[in-house]
């Protein structure tokens, strides 16, 4: 059913009620006026009959009775009839008595005979063919009924005299109806206007403007409704503010979480996706919300895990790989998502990126294996030669000396490995506790490192040149930077042929100090460069051990430079030498 405006319902109803009231009033007034005029005419007729009675009393046997009646009727303008008790017409002012029928059964005659009082009746006249008002009066003499005097006037003339009055009444009714229509319209507008204001207020509430207040009204019901709407708006505002705050807090918690969170409904539609999950899956939250998980995540293992979570009543846990945008190892935890009423509405999946953790676990395993391998070789050699010396057999002094020299060399190797491991541990501890740094000149640090390596370089007739700019101020831990430069110079001397040149260059570039240690050694193949700074990684393991290397020197360099917020790199060409670079913030 199509709704209609309230004013279009109220106004016709008011107008109809007004019209019915005016119609009823007009009908009642018209009937009352007609009855009044009828009574007035009847009274006049009775008065005329009293005069006629005085004229005809004693003249009932007069042969000129007809003439008397006709003359009286001509003078008054009414019709008069004298009727005998038996109904015969004795005289009539307008008709010959002998032509008229018996009037004994006429209503006014019957009523006057029965009550012995004046009687009236309104009926159609057969002789005159129109409706008349008849008034009959009984005339008695000495207690005996002698004759009935009857007067008559046509109703048509009576009503004609009332037509002007009725027109005036009709005009007044039309005017009253028009005024009542205006008043009804004003009343309807007065009722509708506050309702329209309430509707406008409700529309503002629907649009989110809960601060708007409905206007005051002098209509009690409308005022009560406005007060209820005001209370509703205040409560809604408080609840929305509370919900918005809770939602903002939830969004902040989800956005701040390192773990990725995905909430799906029972049909695998994405309900919620936080920033970490979007980053792990290589998408945006806006792109995923409301869509099927299979549309936004192209990973069969994750899709299968979500299905398993939806089907399971217990929490589910699994490790899987994601390949968008990068290859990541992710620990996934899934549990049922329930409403406040305890009804299951979906599943909640938490993604924890454990790529670095798994990588560290692998590095740790490799480190333990490498340390075990590096320590096992000298320990096995020491154990073997010591057992040989303790075997009880006599040995020549030169053999004993050679065995002890081997034991000493392996002992020194063990000491070097342990010292390097301790250095790495100290650097890591200092890195976690923040390095103690001070402003120092990198040129002086490089000069000191060259002096420390001078003995070994001189034994191989290798010259070390310092081409660093002066001064090179930087906020560093001078002891650790010196150790890093020494390790690079020591490697350059180790892997350079006698008589070659090693140079150290220092320059400033784009807010960085660049220290480069360049040698003319054997060089390094390209496939080894990415792993060159790993612990115990060697390009040529046999040659490194023969030269006394522990495989930790470059790892120490990397840790020292990284602790200073810098970078370390290497460029090398097989057979032409290598260039190790340290970049430190200026």
Describe the model.
The chain has 586 residues and is an alpha+beta fold. It folds into four domains: 7-161, 2-Layer Sandwich (Beta-Lactamase); 257-347, 2-Layer Sandwich (Beta-Lactamase), CATH 3.30.450; 354-434, Signal transduction histidine kinase, dimerisation/phosphotransfer (DHp) domain (Helix Hairpins, Orthogonal Bundle); 435-585, Histidine kinase-like ATPase, C-terminal domain (Heat Shock Protein 90, 2-Layer Sandwich). 53% of the residues lie in helices and 21% in strands. The protein has 16 helices and 17 strands. It has helices at residues 6-56, 65-76, 107-115, 155-206, 220-256, 275-281, 285-288, 293-296, 300-311, 355-389, 397-432, 442-452, 454-459, 478-494, 541-546, 553-563, and strands at 79-83, 89-92, 119-125, 130-141, 144-154, 260-265, 270-273, 316-322, 328-338, 344-353, 438-441, 463-468, 473-476, 501-509, 512-518, 567-573, 577-585. The strands form four sheets. The chain has a five-stranded antiparallel sheet with strand order 2-1-5-4-3, sandwiched between helices. Residues 542-548 have low confidence and may be disordered.
């Amino acid at each position: 059913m199509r709704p209609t405006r309230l004013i279009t319902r109220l106004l016709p109803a008011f107008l109809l009620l007004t019209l019915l009231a005016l119609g009823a009033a007009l009908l009642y007034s018209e009937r009352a006026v007609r009855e009044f005029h009828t009574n007035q005419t009847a009274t006049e007729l009775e008065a005329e009959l009293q005069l006629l009675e005085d004229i005809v009393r004693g003249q009932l046997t007069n042969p000129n009775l007809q003439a008397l009646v006709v003359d009286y009727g001509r003078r008054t303008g009414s019709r008069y009839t004298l009727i005998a008790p038996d109904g015969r017409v004795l005289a009539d002012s307008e008709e010959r008595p002998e032509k008229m029928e018996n009037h004994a059964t006429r209503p006014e005659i019957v009523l006057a005979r029965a009550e012995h009082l004046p009687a009236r009746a309104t009926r159609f006249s057969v002789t005159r063919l129109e409706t008349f008002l008849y008034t009959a009066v009984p005339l008695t003499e000495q207690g005996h009924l002698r004759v009935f005097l009857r007067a008559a006037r046509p109703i048509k003339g009576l009503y004609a005299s009332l037509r002007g009055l009725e027109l005036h009444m009709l005009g007044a009714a039309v005017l009253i109806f028009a005024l009542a229509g205006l008043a009804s319209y004003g009343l309807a507008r007065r009722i509708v206007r506050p309702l329209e204001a309430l509707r406008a207020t409700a529309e503002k509430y629907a649009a989110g403007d809960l601060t708007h207040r409905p206007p005051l009204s002098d209509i009690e019901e409308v005022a009560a409704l406005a007060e209820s709407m005001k209370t509703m708006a205040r409560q809604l505002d408080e609840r929305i503010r509370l919900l918005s705050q809770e939602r903002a807090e939830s969004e902040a918690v989800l956005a701040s979480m390192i773990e990725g969170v995905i909430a799906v409904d029972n049909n695998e539609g994405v309900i919620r996706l936080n920033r970490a999950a979007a980053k792990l899956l290589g998408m945006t939250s806006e792109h995923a919300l409301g869509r099927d998980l299979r549309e936004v995540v192209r990973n069969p293992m994750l899709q299968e895990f979500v299905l398993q979570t939806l089907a399971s009543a217990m929490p589910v846990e699994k490790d899987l790989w994601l390949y968008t945008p990068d290859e990541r190892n992710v620990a996934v935890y899934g549990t049922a998502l329930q409403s406040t009423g305890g009804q299951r509405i979906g599943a909640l999946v938490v993604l924890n990126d454990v790529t670095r953790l798994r990588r560290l676990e692998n590095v740790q395993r490799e480190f333990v294996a490498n340390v075990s391998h590096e320590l096992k070789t000298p320990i096995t050699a020491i154990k073997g030669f010591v057992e040989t010396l303790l075997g009880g057999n006599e040995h020549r002094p030169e053999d004993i000396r050679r065995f002890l020299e081997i034991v000493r060399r392996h002992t020194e190797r063990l000491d070097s490995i342990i010292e390097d491991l301790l250095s790495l541990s100290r650097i890591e501890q200092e890195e976690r506790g923040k390095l103690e740094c001070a402003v120092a000149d990198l040129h002086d640090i490089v000069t000191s490192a060259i002096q420390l390596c001078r003995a070994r370089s001189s034994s191989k007739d290798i010259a070390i040149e310092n081409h660093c700019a002066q001064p090179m101020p930087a906020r560093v831990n001078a002891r650790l930077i010196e150790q890093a430069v020494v390790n690079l110079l020591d490697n350059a001397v180790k892997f350079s042929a006698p008589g070659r040149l090693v140079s150290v260059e220092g320059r400033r570039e784009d807010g960085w100090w660049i220290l480069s240690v360049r040698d003319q050694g054997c060089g390094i193949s390209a496939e080894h460069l990415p792993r060159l700074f790993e612990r115990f990684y060697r390009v040529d393991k046999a040659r490194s051990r023969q030269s006394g290397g522990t495989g930790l020197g470059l790892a120490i360099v990397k840790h020292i430079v990284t602790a200073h917020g810098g970078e370390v790199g290497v460029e090398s060409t097989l057979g032409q030498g290598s260039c190790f670079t340290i970049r430190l913030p200026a």
